Fold this sequence. Notes:
Elements: H1 3-6, H2 10-42, H3 48-68, H4 73-82, H5 84-93, H6 112-116
Amino acid sequence: MSRKKGQQTPEWKWEQALIDDYYDYRWRQVLNPLYEKFKRWEAGELAHEDMDQAIHEAHKENQHLYSLFNEGRSLLVGVIQWDEEWFEKWLADHPPPEGIQLMARRARPFSNEEETTPRKGGTGVG
């Protein structure tokens, strides 16, 4: 199947919607706080040094996002699913088409207490 025809499949379109929506979500995580700091700087609440630091931090996050979104498509789709809180919300409105294999959910401890309480004969690492 040609690449162009592959892009017309329901699976490809679902994956692309996933990637596009996650891309927007992650960029908003980086840029919204920076935008708020620009507004505070404009109002005289932050100094130039504060903005320099804020821009530097946003740039570092930009580099991480650039690396993430330049990974191979199948790896990227898997990585996005590891952001379970975001993915579960997104999945509720975007059920996968037949043929999409979702990653198994990670096992989570039942409470914070279980994470830190040593098990009998265990190391305490939960």
